[in-house]
Amino acid sequence: QLEESGGGSVETGGSLRLSCTISPSYYTRNCVGWFRQTPGKEREGVAAIDRDGNTGYADSVKGRFTISKDNAKNILYLQMNSLKPEDTAMYYCAAEPEGDYVNYGFPLPPETLTPAGYSYWGRGTQVTVDS
Question: What is the pLDDT of residue 29?
């Protein structure tokens, strides 16, 4: 299971940190990541991190968002700084299906930010950035 928390409302330029508690069986997948979706739009990848700690980001969030994980607690984080109104969305964490180890390298390739590559999803947490 995956459960997000930490969403809320913030002013433009503000910061939020999202957390996702992940069951151990999902936490050890090749990749876990953050995605977001607004009404009427397709879900898009925001950031991903693999077993080795390699990371990848969508161009729209590079330099502002940081993905990390606490292996002792099985928690995935997304630190979001310099938030913009266009960051407003429902944010989801997700895990890839079980599979053999893949050495993606750094940075993670774009396919690790493709929602179709993920099988397990949380219910989401809403982030609203006021202009």
Answer: 87
Structure tokens given for 131: 């202009």
CA distances (Å), 15 to each of 8, 81, 102, in order?
10, 4, 33
Which residues touch 8 (CB under 8 Å, ≥6 apart)? 16, 126, 127, 128
Distance CA 34, CA 37 (A): 11
Q: For the chain, which residues score pLDDT lower than 70?
A: none
The DSSP letter of residue 96 is P
Q: Is the peptide bond before 107 cis (omega within 30 degrees of 0)?
A: yes
Angstrom distances, CA of residue 40 to CA of 22, 26, 43, 131 = 28, 29, 10, 21
Q: Are 93 and 86 in contact (CB under 8 A)?
A: no
107: three-class secondary structure by DSSP: coil
User: For the residues of 17-58, what is the DSSP string, one character each?
Assistant: EEEEEE-HHHHTSSEEEEEEE-TTS--EEEEEEETT--EEE-
pLDDT at 9: 98
